[in-house]
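DM from R.C. (forwarded with permission)

"hey, sorry to bug you on a friday — could you get me a structure for this? deadline for the figure draft is monday and I only need the backbone to look sensible"
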Amino acid sequence: MAVGMTVSTRKDPGCAIVAASGDVDISTSPDLREALARVVAEGNRAVVVDLSAVKFIDSTGLGVLVGAFTAVRNAGGRLAVVNDHSAVIKVLTITALHEVLGVQPTLEGAIAAVREPEPATEP
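My reply, with the result:
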């Protein structure tokens, strides 16, 4: 039996949060992609993708996350993902996206990660 997905968006002081619940797969990924594109188009530069209620993600869902990460970074912003379900973390780790996407186990940790200033670099 297929599991659907719901997506919601809200503003938190200093960031936008896009939350999904259910499975992120080929049939549900377009909804997540649209919500993330809208958040970026609205000018949000600190974006949290809350997948704490997601227990399955396929390659299409990973592509949506990479696309959102790229869009936010190209706009000078930061993106973090929330999830601590072992199946999702395993996929993110195997694909080496766990660190790239800034995966955090809690929403609070992800919000803090996108609010932190970039480390200073040597000229």
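R.C.: lifesaver. The chain has a mean pLDDT of 92.
me: no worries. The helical segments are 29-41, 59-74, 86-94, 97-100, 107-115.
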